[in-house]
Structures are given as C-alpha cells and as structure tokens.
Amino acid sequence: MTPEGEALLLQGTAELGLTVEDHLPAFAHLLELLVEANSRVNLTALKTEAEIILKHFVDSLTCLRGGHLNGEGQVLDLGTGAGFPALPLAIMQPGATFTPLDSIRKKIDFVRGAADALNLPNVTPLVGRAETLGRDPEHRERYDRVVCRAVAALPILAELALPLLRPGGLVVAQKGPISEEELRAGRRAAGEVGGRVTEVDAFTLPVLGDARTLIVMQKVGATPGKYPRREGVPNQQPLFWTAR
Ligand code: SAH
To answer: Does residue 46 carry a pLDDT above 80?
Structure first.
C-alpha cells in the first residue's frame, strides 16, 4: 500500500470513529491479494488502490456504524463476492466468527485463500445459496447477525436473510440510496418472514461523500416454514415488490 493509500484508509476509518493502525499490515496484504487476483480473473470492478481502499475497505467498515455488530457471535455475510464486507470486518473483530457466503465458487475460493493468507481463523467461507441455507437446519436460525452489501432489493434481502437469524438477531444491510417504495416493500416483507425494520441510517461515505444507507432488520418472531421460497423465486417474485 502506498503512503497515499494508507492516508486514505486512516482518514476514512477515522471518520467512522475506528482505529485501524494495528491492522494496516492486514489491509495492505488484502489489497495486494485483490490487485493480484484481479489481474487474472475479474473478481471486482474496482481496480485502483484508492477505489479499493475507499469503496471496498472503508465502505465495508461503515456497517459498524451504530454498533449493531458488537464483536461477538456468528455473522453470516450474504453474497460476499470477493469478501465484502466480511474480510474487513473479520480483521477488525477477531472475537466474532464470519461466514462469507456466495453461490459463485471462484469468489469463495478467493475469500478462502485470502482468509488463509491473512491468518484469519475466524473466517469460514461457504459456497451456496441463501435460499438453500435458509431451509437447512444446520444454518436456519443459527446466526446472530447477517450482513449484506449490494446484494438485492430490501424485500428480497428480508426473505433471504431473516430465516438465517436466531430470534432477536439482526440483519445489517448496506445499500446506496433507497426509495420509499423499496423501503415500504421491505417493511412488509420483513413482517411476513418474522422480522421488523428497526433502523434506516442514511449517511455519506467518508472522503468521497457518496450516498449510503444502512438498514437494520430485527428477527422478532418465527419465520413461517414456507420461507425462503425455492432458489431464484425470491428474486423473480419479490414479496410486496413489483416496481423494479
Ligand atoms: N457483497 C459484495 C458482492 C456484491 S455482488 C460486495 O459488496 O462487493 C452480489 C453477490 O451476491 C454476487 O457475488 C452473487 O453471486 C451473490 N448472491 C446473490 N444472490 C445470492 C444468493 N441467493 N445466495 C448466495 N449468494 C448470492
């Protein structure tokens, strides 16, 4: 990582009230692995050092706003891609365990390699679909937190994520700006699958100022056995949501 990159990471995380000094070598190593992997396979659209630092590392860490992730328990990252937000969170919170989930094997292969290279024993990557996990007794109602960044519209996320949570658990969803229509559908969908939207936190990304929203949903009741519906259906026929 160049001195300029390091300065950006320090500035961005300081704006979030986080101290990353002790973790600079880990972030530098992750940056190197991403740049190297991106030169072989198209793993993420972000290519420059500054983009990766601000739009992957700092952006991932914005889900620590509000203290919904308390550094303990089991956290599933639904649709982790190349490991975001799971890998930056796992660096910052060694006391929590992270399960980065993605249906695309080559992405999980990268995440596994990165977790090994960075010596992150608290990361257990998994290839699979959220719909399948949500019906599997080994995963249904097993997680304390589900995080997800840039994966799907809120009503779809509600159906995919809430079945995986223990009662009382939280979904922390990272999105760009969200419309009133999407939020309304998301609230209704959350209610349908045993959850409730408890917080909508609009803010701007440190340094760059891009609009972001954190949406928190809590599991307040049991998820009916018919949810999640089979693979692909939550996306094709989102609950209470037609305006796409
Ligand atoms: N969270 C990452 C990747 C976002 S792209 C980031 O912010 O950079 C969305 C990812 O979600 C893709 O990699 C896709 O394969 C995965 N995905 C979408 N629906 C999924 C599902 N139902 N189960 C598992 N993974 C899913």
So the answer is: no
Q: How far is the CA of 79 from the centre of ligand 1 (A)?
A: 3
Q: What is the mean pLDDT of residues 49-63?
A: 96
- Break the chain into its structural domains and give their ranges: 66-229
pTM as predicted = 0.97
Our measurement of the distance from residue 165's CA atom to the centroid of its chain's CA atoms, rounded to an integer in Å, reads 14
Short-list 161, 25, 170, CA closest to 80: 161
SS3 (DSSP) at 217: strand
Ligand 1 center–CA 75 separation, angstroms:
16
Q: Name the token pair of 110.
A: 């990268």
Long-range contact pairs involving 34-38 (C-beta distance under 8 Å, separation at least 24): 34/82, 34/114, 37/82, 37/110
Counting from 1 in the atom list of ligand 1, the atom nearest the Cα of 234 is 22
The protein residue whose alpha carbon is closest to atom 8 in ligand 1 is: 84
Q: Which residue from 101, 102, 174 has its CB within 8 A of the most atoms of ligand 1, so it is best to mutate? A: 102
pLDDT bracket for residue 238 (50, 70, 90)? very high
In ligand 1, the atom with minimum distance to the C-alpha of 104 is: 15
Domain 66-229 has CATH 3.40.50.150: yes
Q: Is residue 134 within 8 Å of 101, Cβ to Cβ?
A: no
Q: Which residues line ligand 1 (CB under 6 A)?
A: 79-81, 84, 101-104, 107, 129-131, 149-151, 160
pLDDT band at 117 (very low <50, low <70, confident <90, very high): very high
Is it the case that residue 244 has pLDDT exceeding 70?
A: no
